[in-house]
Specification:
Strand order of the largest sheet: 1-2
Mean pLDDT: 93
Number of domains: 1
Distance between the termini: 28 Å
Number of strands: 2
Strand content: 5-15%
Largest sheet: 2 strands, antiparallel
Low-confidence stretches: none
Amino acid sequence: MDYLAEIIASLCTVSVADCYGFLITKCDAMGEQLADGKIVKLERLGTFALTLKGIETNEPEKLNKNTIK
């Protein structure tokens, strides 16, 4: 992320530290939105969403990290 902040700073008038702070904050905000089950759309970058796939079962005790992909 440091390198990305440097690139962004070189393309505008904002400092590397400000760019880095923005990127960290943006990542935190995206993480919160995704954790809440929301879709995050970033213009010119893409659309982000969390998905979960697993093996279907009617027995909750059979659900574990190996049944979720």
